[in-house]
Amino acid sequence: MAKGQYRESETSFRKAIDLSPTWALPWANLCGLCGETKDYQKGNIACDSALLLRPEYYGGFVNAGLMAVQEDNLLKAEDYFLRAITLNKEHYLSYERLGYIQLEKAAYEAANENFEKAAEKSMGISEARIANSFGTNDVRYEFGREIIALDFTQPIHSEMELLNGIKARPEDPEAHFELGCYYAWDGNLEKARERFKKAIALNPDHKSVFSALGYLEYTAERFEAAELCWIRHLEIQPKDTATLMQLAFMYENWHHPQKALHGYEAVIQLDSLNQNALQHRLLLLRLLGKYDDMDKALEQYAFVSL
Fold it and tell me: pTM for the whole thing?
């Protein structure tokens, strides 16, 4: 990456931090970037911030571990990767990096076991890779790069008008939902999350809020929380193919191919001409070795793609 691109990435992460100082994701990504540029002083501040804000977030530990490798502090890196695995047993990178550390320690059996787990978890993943100090891949991992598109359009009303609406109607879930959408559009994700949760408290069957809150949780890589939100939304609106696609796509990014496959099949049952679902189903069938089911899936996809 060129120096200008490093500066551009850092500016982007810092802008996100300025907009939402309690959001751990840009701090974690800044940590990874500083590891790559060898700016360890900034990187350690960013790592500490990410881990303090969200100690349950595995991404902070992954990038902290990657930076510790760059500092040649393998003991510290090993601890970070082990903690990342404890928090998310499905992400391949922690296993892969831990394997290289164990090679350095001549723990060959443990290294091989972790490489096998990394290979299993990374099946079907295609990412841009960066050479690192091991001579292999990934100095850093930028979390949240593949974000499901959910359009929080520019609100008609200002923040002040929406706040005044809540003062007038404090028990109206729609008023809180509208303000949450305003904050999401404005990039203030923590405030948006607070308002969406207030709307849910006032109306647990709100038709839109669970989908919107699920998106926020996904962008922060709180996959378990996003899953619960979208499943609840689908209990309220079971034929919402857009949210079914979001859930399936998340499972695919979360490295749960079987769940993703079920999700895409559910979309296809409701919308047999959904080209994205048909394509993803075909790729997952191949990934999972379900070759007997591929002929019919390929025929259906080819028909829609004509």
Answer: 0.58
